[in-house]
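Supplementary Text 2. Reproducibility record for the structural model of the 273-residue chain.

All settings were left at their defaults, and a single model was retained for analysis rather than an ensemble. We include the record here because the model underlies the residue-level annotations in Supplementary Table 4.
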Amino acid sequence: MLYSLAFIPVFTIGGVTGVMLAMASADYQYHNTMFLVAHFHYTLIPGAVFAVLAGFHYWFPKVFGFRLNERLGKASFWFIAISFNVTFFPLFFLGLKGMTRRMYTYSAETGFGPLSMISMVGAIGLAIGFVLLCYNIYWSTRYQPRDKTGDPWDARSLEWSTPSPVPVYNFAVTPKVTERDAFWFSKLNKKPLSDEKIQKIHMPSNSGKPFILGVAFFFLGFFLVFSWWTPAIISGIGVLIIMATMSSDRDDGYYIPAEEVVQTEKKLRGETV
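Retained model, structure tokens:
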């Protein structure tokens, strides 16, 4: 929630400065300066990194079965949010003063030193924030209590009706959705999402072919970027071969017995199914 709220003012600054860059007459001054660097980070960091961090903290208990420590999480957030602004806000003024990007050195007479030093202090604070995040993962893995409800946030969407961490089959029975936020209303009305009995569940067999295909596509794209035609052709042939084998695969998968599903639900939820 904190990262989601921080996104609003930070991204607004990025958007407003983007309008300034869109004016050709003004961009004659801003172009290729640290002003552009600051604008870029004021859109990229809240739009991508803050969103990733918000989602990471929110869905972490669904993936691993326990929440991250709230106190450490808040400390990490404030270090990252404040240090981000300390790092990049001075760059707007450095850009207006004429400091170009990719400048690795400058004389004292330019006057760039004080603001650059403030920016460096902010960068150190950012590093501390991410170190705290890593420590939070370590500490929570060792000491946080495990969640048995599968719904530590009292959430609304269906994924929180499954145990945490989510078993390989996802849902023991397919939920019946008759309204928006079906899981939320099922909790309010104290009714199950489905009246069906647990039955055997069909599962696809595990395969390493999709991973190998992804690696082959990576090399194909990499070689094409640099016009290395021979390895690109070899990679392309590899991609086609893997796709052909996947298309001709006749594996019908396997079934998880109903008894095993029941036992898994009991073990993960710590209650009678």
